[in-house]
Amino acid sequence: MRRRKRSALQVYQGHFGPNMTPMVDVVMVILVFFMASAAVLGPDWFIRAALPIRAATAAITDDALIRVELTLASGERGTTVSPAYLGAAPAGVSLPSAEAVPLAGLGSWLDELVRGAGAERLVVAITPSDAVPYQDVVAAHEACAVAGITRTGLATSPR
Known about the structure:
By secondary structure, the chain is an alpha/beta fold. It folds into two domains: 8-46; 62-154, Nucleotidyltransferase, domain 5 (2-Layer Sandwich). The protein contains four helices and five strands. The chain has helices at residues 8-13, 21-41, 106-117, 134-147; strands at 66-75, 78-86, 101-102, 122-128, 152-154. Helix 3 packs parallel to helix 4 (134-147). The longest helix has 21 residues, at 21-41. The model has no long low-confidence stretch (mean pLDDT 81).
């Protein structure tokens, strides 16, 4: 039996389809990079931050909280804020009147509220109407933050 000589060209012509070896090599190199970078990213969870330490204060019960709803309405003179107290104020707390104020005067009204009640007792819900521009809602929230009120949130008006 006589052997037939086969050249590299004849062997190559017998195969079909792309050569997958280079692609597998590239995928393995990428896998190694991902595995190596995952070990570097792990310690980020343990970064120490220099946070200010709060002094221990007496716990405030729900009865001592003063809930205020700020209803924002848009009119021809701009956005007005109508404050409303939800529930009775604790004894010995002086609260400003709940008359409507323009958005520009909200900061001074909130300062008066914080002076009378204390910022740690206040819970403020901002309820904008549909026509109020979003920048006015942000301005009302910012006025609460500047006054030192930390319990501030957005609410929706019931329809």
